[in-house]
Design goal:
- The chain is mostly helical.
- It has one domain.
- It is built from 7 helices and 2 strands, in the order βαβαααααα.
- Strand 1, helix 1 and strand 2 form a beta-alpha-beta unit.
Length: 172
């Protein structure tokens, strides 16, 4: 049997069905993993906007009281706003590739935002499922378990990942 590797565009799927009707269609892992990382970054950015709004509110309150606003600073010198801004790149990397400052930042970030920690490690687990040479049935079970863990969070940012996972599981 022949295989066609697709990106996630619906038009690509239609073309493959028409040109290669008997081929097995597979969505490449890059696009699946990218969706997961994009969703993770969306959650981080949402927290960043909340931190900005909170900082602006506290700054305004301090100004109204005639006081100077001093933001909370974590042990690495970051404010909450800086922590969320500067953690962008570390969420794309494996912990083995973090610098010492990224490692410290990740410890603080994950202590403050447990859901980001959980989603980050789910992203890594997805990569491990793709990277390990499993029997098709074992891979199906691992993907289904992974999918269930993502779905349990019920975060709207992950709907695209969940919907894609459902489609992939149907094709197995």
């Amino acid at each position: 049997m022949r295989t066609v590797t697709l990106d996630m565009a619906g038009s690509m799927r239609s073309i493959a069905l028409r040109c290669f009707p008997n081929a097995l269609q597979v969505i490449d892992r890059f696009h699946v993993q990218k969706l997961m990382y994009d969703a993770l970054q969306d959650v981080r950015v949402q927290y960043r906007w909340q931190a900005i709004e909170e900082e602006n509110r506290l700054r305004k309150e301090a100004r109204e009281k005639g006081e100077k606003y001093v933001p909370q600073v974590f042990e690495n010198g970051d404010t909450r706003r800086q922590l969320l801004l500067r953690s962008r790149c570390l969420l794309f990397k494996s912990p083995a590739h973090w610098t010492s400052s990224q490692r410290q930042r990740a410890e603080i970030l994950f202590r403050e935002y447990d859901d980001l920690k959980q989603f980050y490690y789910l992203s890594l687990q997805l990569g491990q499922i793709y990277s390990t040479n499993y029997d098709k049935n074992v891979a199906r079970i691992k993907m289904a378990l992974w999918f269930n863990r993502v779905e349990e969070w019920q975060y709207p940012q992950f709907n695209a990942v969940i919907n894609l996972s459902r489609n992939i599981m149907k094709e197995f």
